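User: I'm designing a mutation panel for Alkaline phosphatase D family protein and want to avoid disrupting the core. Could you give me a predicted structure to guide residue selection? Please restate the sequence first so the numbering is unambiguous.

Assistant: Good idea. Sequence first, for numbering, then the predicted structure tokens:
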Amino acid sequence: MKTAYYPVLFLALIIGFSSCKKTEESAQVEPFKIAIGSCNKHDEPQPLWNPILADSVDAWVWLGDNIYGDTEDMDLLRSKYDAQDEIEKYSQLKSQVPIYGIWDDHDYGRNDGDKNYPKKSESKQIMLDFLDVPEDAPERKREGAYSSHLIGEGENLVKLILLDARYFRDTLSRIDGAYLPNEQGTILGEEQWAWLEKELSDTKPKVTLIASGIQILPTQHRFEKWANFPQERVKLLDLLAASEVRNPILLSGDRHIAEIMKYEDDRFPEGLFEFTSSGLTHTWSTVGEEANDLREGDLIAKLNYGLIIFDWENSTLVYQVKGENGNVYASQSISLK
């Protein structure tokens, strides 16, 4: 009896240890991944959907210029969105993961468009159709295309806030290709500002992503940016600093370049990051220098998309600028609080 007992007991211990090990392994939380991008010509080659699919992302976020509409003909605009939907690899991604998005100017319908674009209401509904937004969603019923979404499961939640920087935006003047500041003008409009303040009162998500078609932090370049409306930029930064949201991150597109930026002051002693991802089908034709004191690393003028990796196990967010064949052009790691 004793001779038979010990081998059986030993085997039971091994099986029990193996079972415990598998239970521990299965309890590990897999990294959560969101891909982002902008500036996508629906009738040009789109080589980046393959590496995006290979990344096995959990969601895709459009950051503007999702197609190039540039029209007041709504049938033409819809046909361009339809053409994008027929791109095989994009269609494959759309069948696998949730798609979120906000517009910039070309998909809005007018280059550098503002609140005076006459077809903005009709254009909004067409974009929401493209994004498969439910008919009863709040953004269907109100003015503007702004929205918010909770992504993830359980305690590991990401809030995605998509700001509409076109529908309510006041007019800018331009001299010699450079925009002049509109000291009193608005980007978001009164109702969207009130909505945003309410959204930023939610402290449950571990990370809050705030997306805008145009860049938020840069002040030095001469193109469209939040700094063209100085009061609006200060208001946004003050609102973020006053809120108790955890780990805010800014996202933007528009520029046909990619860059990582970090803003630091008394309000953001550990830094506020902005990730610009642009473009999916075209970038600067020639690489030039552009002043940006907030840039971390290099300006990237290659086809690119952004990959945000949420490593919940290690309380870390990793952002990668990626390109064709999955090449990583830049990376930034942020410790989550």
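For picking mutation sites, this is relevant: The longest strand covers residues 328-335. The radius of gyration is 23 Å.
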